[in-house]
Amino acid sequence: MRTTSNPAFRNLPTSGGYANFNYGQGQTAPYGQAPSAPPQTARPMTIDDVVTKTAITLGLAVITGTLTYLVGPPAVGLALPAALIGLVISLVIVFKKKVSPALVIAYSAVEGVFLGGISYLFGSLFDPGIIIQAIAGTVGVFAAMLVVYKTGAIRVTPKLTKWIIGAVAGVAVLMLVNLIASFFTPGGLGLRDGGGLAIAFSLLCIGIAAFSFLLDFDAADKAIKGGVDAKFAWYIAFGLMTTLVWLYLEILRLLSYFQSSD
To answer: pLDDT of 201-241, one tens digit each?
Structure first.
């Protein structure tokens, strides 16, 4: 399986294969006795598993996000704690050796609270319609990249994979440097101040997030074809959600820049 920019997919087995496909191969038994039955294994993952688990995680995030948004002004105060808790949970998911559906579900719920608080903040500072626009943009980009991947319009090659991973690492470093610089200079490097450079940087992030979906889809596709355990669909759902969250935040931020300039 190729490397992906999404750390969640690195927990997927590098080689699949359903054990029962090899029944009788390499097994010996005393003369006159039937070979022993193969060890029982969980069924291999299917596309339905991925769709179902992804729908559960996204649906839960939408529910908690909507409820948080409806709380009103206090929702803003919930955003930072939820972001920190979500970060801790995501790190545990990434580094934990066993699949934990409970952690993925908890992450989805907490991330929904974070998105609900951020959305309320942007909705109160700008036109509330910006939230619907950001959601529509996120869904549109996701659907478009899924079509691009399924039709083979852009193939996930090792060269493209390295480019996307490098781009993700690059923007992450820039964000960190900009954050540190903002402690000493108002606006930092100007990557988030709403100016022309900030608009260009958000467009770049949106583009990289969109292309990251190709790697996510490719990793999921190869996991299914490799016959990995169905439980790993939770990892795929978690990975897709992290990319969706990043994309939504960047689109929301970009829309706020345009409204600020009006």
So the answer is: 999 999 999 999 999 999 999 989 988 888 889 999 999 99
Say if residues 138 and 244 touch (Cβ distance below 8 Å): yes
- What residue spans define the domains of the chain? 43-260
Long-range contacts of 138-144 (CB under 8 A, 24+ apart): 138/244, 138/247, 138/248, 138/251, 141/206, 141/209, 141/210, 141/213, 141/247, 141/251, 142/213, 142/244, 142/247, 144/210
Q: Which is nearest to 215 in space by CA: 135, 144, 147, 158?
A: 158
Q: What is the mean pLDDT of residues 63-80?
A: 95
